[in-house]
Amino acid sequence: MIPHNKPTLGVEEEFATLRVLRSGQLAQGPEVEAFENEFCKFIGLPNEHAVAVSSGTASLFLALWILNAPGKKIIFPGYVCSALRHAVGMIGGYESIIDVGNTSPNIDPTKLEKKNSEIVIIPHMYGIPIDLSNFQSKNIIEDCAQALGAKINRKSVGLQTKIGIFSFYVTKLMTSGGQGGMIISKDKSIVDAIRDYREFDYRRDSKRRFNFQMTDLQAAIGREQLKKLPSFLARREEIFQKYKKEGLELLDIETNYDHIEPVRYRAIMKTKNPKKVIQSLESVGVKSIVPTEDWEILGEHDLLPNSLKISRETVSLPIYPTLTDKEVDIVLSAIS
Questions:
Q1: What is the total count of domains within the chain?
Q2: Same domain, 111 and 164
Q3: How far is CA 139 from CA 119, 135, 195, in A?
Q4: 136 pLDDT band (50/70/90 cuts)?
Q5: Cα separation of 234 and 185, whole Å?
Q6: Residue finishing a domain among 155, 190, 225
Q7: Whether residue 219 is found in the same domain as residue 257
Q8: Is there a domain that residue 239 lies in?
Q9: Do 209 and 243 fall into the same domain?
């Protein structure tokens, strides 16, 4: 069976893991600091403008914390990972859920303009980035969990707003050993405050903090994955274009948006009959999924018609760096 998704790991990650194990320094230490600064370089920030944490959800929680979110109304889309709802609930915010666009899995900017909010979480779904230049006055958390490497006007996602967050979960564009996350900001005072919160133990004050630390073991794997990320993204783009060349209708940026550079976290095929496509692929040994089931959509479904439509008319096809051309041809044999 050709899996829907899998991590791309090699001997470099093995050697990095052994290096840390043999050092005896397993908890947060020099590997984490090195990973943070290498991530800054990749994104286009000075050193010390990133904080590595235990998960993408932890990064979202901490972004909400630094924006003083308890008791505030927080807008986010209904067509999204449940981690957003969990983080908002954990911080004690009040959720305000809005729909995505007619032809996009991203939040609908026109609906956002009509909403009064104190904080907005805006994900770049499936690696398709959204231009946020018209929303600079808002407290926006840029959720880049699915879009590491994507750019707007040649600048990395995560730099358009006050705070950007990333996830290194095992199925993301790169992983730090199964879990992990990163928070970035152009404002170093924000990063310093979040780092202080993360350093929870042996502190000579009465501030409340929590252990959201990444381990050196995770960071060592993340460092090797980050080195490989450009080749990962290039291979994903090749596969995406192979699918498009064969006539598959995939979710993508608008054709006139030349200033937007997506990454191919997912190859989301539009279809009126997802069940039939999934069954056809399974018959040739290919695993595919509905990327976001209708029951996963957050909020009142009657108010989210676009989210429901995308959920009921899409299938996610395999797209990952180790997927071979022969396997791509098998996928295409069942649906093109």
A1: 2
A2: yes
A3: 5, 9, 20
A4: low
A5: 26
A6: 225
A7: no
A8: yes
A9: no
Yes or no: say if 57 and 83 are a contact pair by the CB < 8 Å rule.
Answer: yes
pLDDT of residue 329: 98
The answer to whether the beta carbons of residues 260 and 129 sit under 8 Å apart is: yes
Identify whether 2 is part of a domain.
no
Share of the chain above pLDDT 90, in %: 88
Would you say 141 and 63 are in contact if contact means Cβ atoms under 8 Å apart? yes
104, 57: one domain: yes
What pLDDT shows up at residue 108? 86
User: Bridge partners of 76?
Assistant: 97
CATH assignment at residue 33: 3.40.640.10
**Phi/psi of residue 177, nearest 5 degrees:** 80, 25
Contact 170/178 with Cβ under 8 angstroms?
Answer: yes
Token look-up 């230049």 returns 133
DSSP 235: H
- Asked if 237 and 209 sit in the same domain, the reply is no
Residue 49 has pLDDT above 70, yes or no: yes
Element (H, E) at 51: strand 50-53
Of 183, 205, 225, the residue that ends a domain is 225
Mean pLDDT value of segment 213-218: 97
Mean pLDDT of 155-171: 96
pLDDT digits (tens, 9 = 90+) for 67-111: 999 999 999 999 999 999 999 999 999 999 999 998 899 998 878
Please tell me whether residues 178 and 197 are part of one structural domain. yes
Can you tell me the distance from the alpha carbon of 179 to that of 150, in angstroms, rounded to the nearest whole number?
21
For residue 277, give its domain range: 230-335
Residue 293 to residue 4: CA distance in whole angstroms: 16
Residues 275 and 251 in one domain: yes
Indicate whether 179 and 263 sit together in one domain. Answer: no
**330, pLDDT greater than 80:** yes
Mean residue pLDDT of the chain comes to 95
- CB within 8 A of 72, min separation 6: which ones? 93, 94, 118, 119
